[in-house]
Amino acid sequence: MNPSAPRLLLAIESSCDExxxxxxxxxxxxxxxIIASQHELHLDWGGVVPEIASRAHVRRILPVISAALQQxxxxxxxxxxxxxxxxxxxxxxxxxxxxxxxxxxxxxNIPLITVNHVEAHIYACSMGHDTPIYPGIGFVVSGGHTNLxxxxxxxxxxxxxxxxxxxxxxxxxKAARILGLPYPGGPSIQQAAATGNPDRFRMPRPLxxxxxxxxxxxxxxxxxxxxxxxxPGPNQLSSTPPELxxxxxxxxxxxxxEVMVEKCRQAVRLLKYSRLCVGGGVxxxxxxRQALSTMCRKERIELFIAPPELCTxxxxxxxxxxxxxxxxxxxSLDADVLPGLVRxxxxxxxxKK
Length: 353
Ligand code: KG4
Ligand code: ZN
Fold this sequence. Notes:
5-stranded mixed sheet; 11 helices; 10 strands; globular; binds 5'-O-[(R)-(carboxyoxy)(hydroxy)phosphoryl]adenosine; binds zinc ion
């Protein structure tokens, strides 16, 4: 390899229902980012079916990696390292990415770096910015997480709050299902809400002033169900009348946004930080981004939100692996997946050498 050639990272992501690969230069320039979404495969079930997801990853992983290398105009012998998401996520899905990454690391004799998906969602906020995003509060809002972190560095984030039941994205997906809108629910709700009146159906704001950094979305989802179809009993409707959908979507979205924005404000104040980083699929929501930026301007908080294409699952955000490589935190070829929910100290217990 030419020693003056730019150092290149191949990143692989397969933790849930997106098969993704990216090539990222050491200066964090994203040379390619390929995402094969499985949304159409899970549409009929209204959520991700793990077995279907794993099988689709197996079929797609090699074409996706080849496409990422091709789009970056790069060959395998130019790669410096390979990074892969190993936690948290669906076990079968994670294993497909890890197996591919290990094979590449072994055959090319390059370092393997294991990435925490949630840590990568926060790191995505730094991409495209020259200013540092750490230390600060990290908020990851996706289909599987609604977590607040005390982020001291890219690889030292400590859980300080989270949901007691559904994740925010899960609530968007379930509310969309109640309203008869397609999966994934977030974009569908956002679109339907655009023409709706958020005040017609006043939805609850669970745990808004609980004094803790916790969330609960299952009551909000039930409130949408009852407002849409009536309370359980012989008169409950089996589907939502279409004319109610925009106002119900707007009411739900306004409640979810108010809770998320307020908890972010409380977390930043509580830990006396001046920075807030927001990532994950729900952070692609336009009105949420708007509400966050209004709150942060008022409170003099520096806001970093990942660009929409880096909010939903992608491999480019695994560029956090460059930070781990610089710290010598490479993984061995017997590394395993850790599918379970995020550990409080997730940023510090991984990639120990
Ligand atoms: O980060 P992500 O792609 O995957 C996980 O790690 O879970 O997040 C997917 C979630 C889904 O629940 C989806 O409905 C939600 O992000 N989402 C949105 C929007 N786009 C995606 N939620 C609200 N508004 C959006 N525009
Ligand atoms: Zn994600």
